[in-house]
Structures are given as C-alpha cells and as structure tokens.
Fold this protein.
Amino acid sequence: MPPQPTDLILVSVLKDKRDLEIVRVLGWYRIPFKTAPKTVAVDWLAFYQTAKFGDEKWAIHYVAPVRGHELTTRRELLRNQPNHPRANELYYKIQLGQLERLPRPIPSRKWRRLTFLYTTGERLLAAVEINDLIIQSEERELLWKALRERGLNAERQYETQPRGEVDFALLCALGNLGILIQSDDAPPRKLRDKPPWRYLTVPSAMLGSDLPGVLEQIEATVSELGGLKP
C-alpha cells in the first residue's frame, strides 16, 4: 500500500549503496542522535540518493513504511566496525517494512545539500521535484507560487554554508540571492552579504500587503546578478 495523503513522511539521505542495501535487506536505517530531526515517529521514510548512485543520484526513488524505532549505539548497529571513531555514539535505529519504488522519481532540479525534511503523503505523490515536498507557512507558499509564475525557479530551505539556511535561494550567473522571510513575532534576522551570496530580508506582512513590490525587488536583484543560471 502506498503512502496515504495524511501520512507524515521524513525525507532522509542515503549516502551510498551500502546504506541502500541495509534498508532493502536488513530493514533498518540509522540516524545519529545528536543530529536527529525533532521527531522520528513518522509513518514513512523517503530516501534522497547522493552522487554515489550514478544515474539515480540527486533524487528520491524509494520509500519504506516505518514499523518502530529504538535508541542504540553505532557499535551495535554495525558490529563489523567496532573500532569506528563514533562506535559508542547513540543512534536511532528506524525499523522499516518493505522498500518500495515510487511510480516516478522526485529529482532535485539543481544539486543541493539535503539533511532531513518532513512532508506528507499527499505532497510526496504529487511532487514533480524536491521543492514541492517542503511544507511552509501561507506567506512563504504565496511567494513560492508567485516566483514560479514569474519564471524565477527558486530552491526552498536552501543551505548557504557557512551562513545557515535561507527560505528561498535563486542561483544566478554572477552570484546567488538568499531570501529570508521575517515573521512578525520572531527576533530580527538579517545576514550580511558575503560573495557569492547576497541576502534580502522580507517581512512576512509585506507578502500580503505588497507582493508585487517584493517581486520587483527580487527581479531587480536577480538582474544585477546576471540572471538565473541555465
């Protein structure tokens, strides 16, 4: 049975083919406790595959239902690596059902660093690309749709090392534009420009009161940065 529309899904990363075989044959996936997402009590895991997967890289091809989880050490999980530097560190062991291939893969249009993100069964089954999975506030969703209508293909929740994560990223020929949405009740958040990144902070209230003005500012900055990369 495929994921149901209301199922909670955690998108996780498969770093190499050995990890995929562990999921497929042994039926579990490991998450370091110290870098784990807020909850691992989800209905499904979806697996984003890295560059080591060749033709299947940078996309989600597989999902697996979650049967439970427990906290253990890396040494117990991977007993053939007892001397690993992280052998005594705590890991979540996510117990899984049968690995299932999606009817169609969900690719990332551009290479991106991905850790964990939550989505729903409804979004997963309708997604055309990775950005379609991301759940955001009403204001962020409004800007996302407006950018797409203008032909400005952005990346959502994009990591800009070493600065952290921005709400939207537009990757341009002469640099990149990071957009931060400032919630009304949140402390001020502003990043200083640091090549190749320029940053734009937008109060969330402006997305409701002056969306055309926000879009004009974004378009002008993208133009200054040489337009979007092909």
